[in-house]
Amino acid sequence: MIDVRVPDEQEGTKAVVRSWLRKVGDPVAVNDPLVELETDKVTQEVPSPAAGVLAEILLDTDAEAVPGALLGRISTDNSARPERSPQGEVEGRAAQAAEARSSTSLRTNELGEGQESRLSPSVRRALQQHGIDASRIAGTGRNGRITREDVDKAVETATIVTSGDSATAQPRQFSAQDIPHDRMRLKIAENMVRAVTDQPHVTAVFEADFSAIAAHKAALAAKGTKLSYTAYIVKAAAEAMAVAPAINGRWEDDRIAISPTIDIGVGTALGEKGLIVPVVKDAGSLSLEQIGARLDEMTRRAREGQLAGADVSGGSFTISNHGVSGSLLASPIIIHQAQAAILGVGKLEKRVVVREVNGQDAILVRPMVYVTLTIDHRVVDGHQTNAWLTRFVEIIEGWA
């Protein structure tokens, strides 16, 4: 028997089993996807470590999956017919029950004594989020346990309105424009509320002239090297840390912890699916071209859903390049938890500015951008914020 375990590298330690892609008794080949794990950032497939038959499932849907935990086992003895585990029998009965239920209505299910205490944390949060009474959902998990998928289906078909000690099901009509919450959206909402509750946000606004990097970018492109403006922004942000190291730190109960490396997350929009933040690790040691290549690769993988937990964890600073979608200024931008600051970069547009030319004021047209630094005021004060932004703008405007 070969163990199937939760990978050691993932986004923190908070992961749950989203779904099994094989049933007990199914044949599998090496590296066949077996099970999906979900964190607040990514959905990750765990492949089969060996060829054989899925013999056991030990962590069911919505079970917490900490690094190294045993998910199941693969039998490599192909000569023997695999025994269906008790877990598999339960899954079979649950599948039959699910087929018998109507997909457009909820069936009242009498909770057994103590069932409420067996709800997983993610199921509890979803029930509370939507005001759903657990006793009105028929669970399809192990021993009739309610899974997160059961809650999601309930949300699609009805709203449970709780009043006092009683609960009644009220039919709700969904329009074609309604967008049911998925797990990523619920987790984003939870993180945003916690961030603004725990961290006092203060935002400073500067503007930067992108003429120098526009010229540098064009010169490289003529030689065959194409870079995005984001690569320049990441490089400048990493260099600006030297004047205010606390920007690259975080608040802890007994100290301000300064990260030994500059690990910069870059917000990447996934359309209707939300936002994900792949991290350029140790950006301070990378060249401009290396940063550009890393960004291209991670952006592609993010949009193809191929990021691993390690790709979106461990950031010490974040950049939100919200200008790519048209906004001039966004404030405040919510600080990523366990960080002290986030840089916002607005839309690049030509604006009229006054500059001194040959000792005289001149009105010029330049490619300008508003840049903001939102800080956790427990960690960073105004003079550090302004020092960092001043240096960042100097680097951008003096690029050669």
From TrEMBL:
Residues 118-155 form the Peripheral subunit-binding (PSBD) domain. The keyword Glycosyltransferase does not apply. The keyword Transferase applies. Its EC number is 2.3.1.-. Keywords: Acyltransferase, Lipoyl, Transferase. PROSITE patterns: BIOTINYL_LIPOYL, LIPOYL, PSBD. This is Dihydrolipoamide acetyltransferase component of pyruvate dehydrogenase complex. Belongs to the 2-oxoacid dehydrogenase family. It holds the Pfam family E3_binding. Residues 73-141 are annotated as: Disordered. Residues 80-92 have a biased composition (Basic and acidic residues). Coiled coil: none annotated. Its cofactor is (R)-lipoate. Forms a 24-polypeptide structural core with octahedral symmetry. PANTHER family: DIHYDROLIPOAMIDE ACETYLTRANSFERASE COMPONENT OF PYRUVATE DEHYDROGENASE COMPLEX, LIPOAMIDE ACYLTRANSFERASE COMPONENT OF BRANCHED-CHAIN ALPHA-KETO ACID DEHYDROGENASE COMPLEX, MITOCHONDRIAL. Residues 1-75 form the Lipoyl-binding domain.
